[in-house]
# Entry
Amino acid sequence: MCALRPVVIEQIAHWWKESLDGAGQAGQVLAPADVSEIAARFHCSEEEAIRGLSVGEHLYWGGGQ
Amino acid sequence: MSAIEHAAKATGKPEHQPEPPRIPLLIKGKNESPAASGRGSGKAGRGFLGTIAQLPKRVFQTVFRVVPYPTKAGLIRIGKPGRSSPVLVTTNYDLTVRRVCRALKGLDCYLLVAPAAGIDVWCAATGGRFTIDSIISVLKTTGIGQLVDHRRLILPQLSATGINIFELRKRSRWSAVFGPVRAEDIPEYLATRRRPESMIRVTFSVQERLEMATAMWGSLSLRYTLFPCLIFGWKTAPWFVLVLAVLSFAIALGCFTLPGKTFVQKAGFLGLPGVMCLVGTLLFPWHPGMFFVIEWTVLTLFASFLVGTAFPSYSPLWACGYSKLFYGACDLRLAVVEDQCIGCRICDLVCPVECFTLTSNRKMIFADPEICVGCGACLIQCPTDAIINEVADEHRLETAHG
# Structure
């Protein structure tokens, strides 16, 4: 497995969290993200994309107070 | 097409609502309330006779809680869930399923009951019985993907010790987030999407400690009474069961006041009378009551050892090994690699005891190693592998240097 780049994971996480926020405010339900599409968009591996998306979900859904 | 563009098309309720597919493992009927199927709040369709009929089972599950009690794995509809309703996951431990259903009363959601050998979430996840395979199995067999538009699971937080959410996503294409520790907090969590400290940390009330003591007493009595009986005869049985009860409740209620760092040490303190009896026996071997003293010595020491080692096994301490169990020396000594930390706080959000702190430069630090229970949830869930176990690193170095 190639080395994970924290910066990329963080970028994807915040992007996905903002997407979820935006969709939530508009009363929409986001379709499941396509990992390969996001990997291509952020020029990263699918592993990094998966981790970034998962963190984004957590920031949106599993956050602390 | 980007995810956002794609999302804009797939928003809201679809115009055409397809008929729900047949679900092979639907535990309850369509739109049936939890109570009606004998789960959940247990009000409708049962009444007084139903409650009486359930009594032996409930007594059994209280006294012998550590004995696995599996219920059927599958899907439970709570209320009238729709295509955007949340999908929660739990293990197929009967008591857990009943309590979760009761907590979810009044909500519209799906509950996936994953096969986990009939063990509760924390123990099953830590012991390798509640795994990604369990979740994938129940996702496929229930066909839940055909019932909802989203692909998000809400897992119990205590499953973080065994279920890596990144691997789950990779293998199942379902994303997962961790919900609250306690089922009673799920409605508030679903309404606010926020988990305050009270939903994340594991604490035990006096009532829960008493329940735990009862469960421990029951299971230890069931499993070990035979051994002293084989040595001293059947008349010893009630005395052994009594000693187990006294020790179990004493440790459950006095865990913060008894001397000792670990439960084994605390139980050892309570077993001191047995040691004194042993010393007395050695000093006065000709005493007429010697056999009686030996009997009580063995009973007390055996019972205190059992209670001391069994109490932490309700938590994932066994995963840490004997040094943690007996001396409190944790096999995990965690550290956060600052350069790799992105400050996402997942480690803190899965930690049952608040070991981590966020610094002013938005990096996590392992601030309180003394209270770490060594469950390893943070190690597993860190998205950037920024958390390392220094004990493992030292071990690797020792091995490398020969």
Notes: Chain A has a mean pLDDT of 87. Helices of chain A lie at 6-25, 35-41, 46-61. Chain A touches chain B through 38 residues (CB under 8 Å).
